[in-house]
Structure formats: C-alpha cells, structure tokens
Amino acid sequence: MLIPVLLFIVGLLFLIKGGDWFVDGASALARRFHLPELLIGATVVSIGTTLPEVMVSTMSALSGLARSPTATPSARSSATRRSLRLSPSPCAPVRSIPKR
After folding, report:
1. Which residues, at least 6 apart from 54, have a Cβ–Cβ distance to it below 8 Å?
2. Taking a C-beta distance cutoff of 8 angstroms, is the pair 36, 56 a contact?
C-alpha cells in the first residue's frame, strides 16, 4: 500500500512541475513573438481540456471500442461539437482499426 501511494505522490509532483514548465514555455513563446499572453493562455487552456478527450478517444479507437472519435461524454457538449466542426481536429482521422 505504501509504494502505490508514494508513486501517486511522485507522479502528481511530476505532473504539477510539468504543467509549470509548459505554461512558462508558452508564456516565453508569447513574449518572444510579441503575442498577447491572453491568446497563449486560451490556447493552453484549450489544449489542457481537449487533450484528455483526444487521448481517451484515440485509445478507444485503437482498442476497437469506439465508433467515432467523439465517443467520450464530454465531447458531446455543444461547445466541443462546435469547435470540432469549426477547426481541424487531430483526432478526426482516427477510426476503429479492425483486428486481424
């Protein structure tokens, strides 16, 4: 029981530090190219909220459990559907892969 708890804590610390590095890097990129930090902040938030959906959908499609890339319940929200219609999605070409 002690090892899983320690691994969880270490993973959480790595996740937090990685998030800090990601935000710091995005902010530095915004300053370097003279972009508004609000734009970079909105991009970071959109990536942070979309990436879990993309990963779940991709893993579902690769395991043959999903019929569409928008199989997650949160992807059925109107805002997500609107963004999937208006912008190209990296998950759009993913479909169920037949097992051999």
Report:
1. 89, 90, 91
2. no
Mean residue pLDDT across the chain:
75
Extract the tokens encoding 20. Answer: 């800090």
CA within 13 Å, CB half, 59: 7
**Amino acid at site 23:** V
Q: Is the pTM of this model over 0.85?
A: no
**Treating both helix axes as pointing N-terminal to C-terminal, what angle do 37-63 and 78-86 enclose, rounded to 10 degrees?**
90
| Dist. CA 67–CA 70, nearest whole Å | 9
CB 72 within 8 A of CB 57: yes
Structure tokens at 92: 């759009």
Half-sphere exposure of 10 (CA within 13 A, CB side): 6
Q: Quick check: 56 and 72 in contact, CB under 8 A?
A: yes
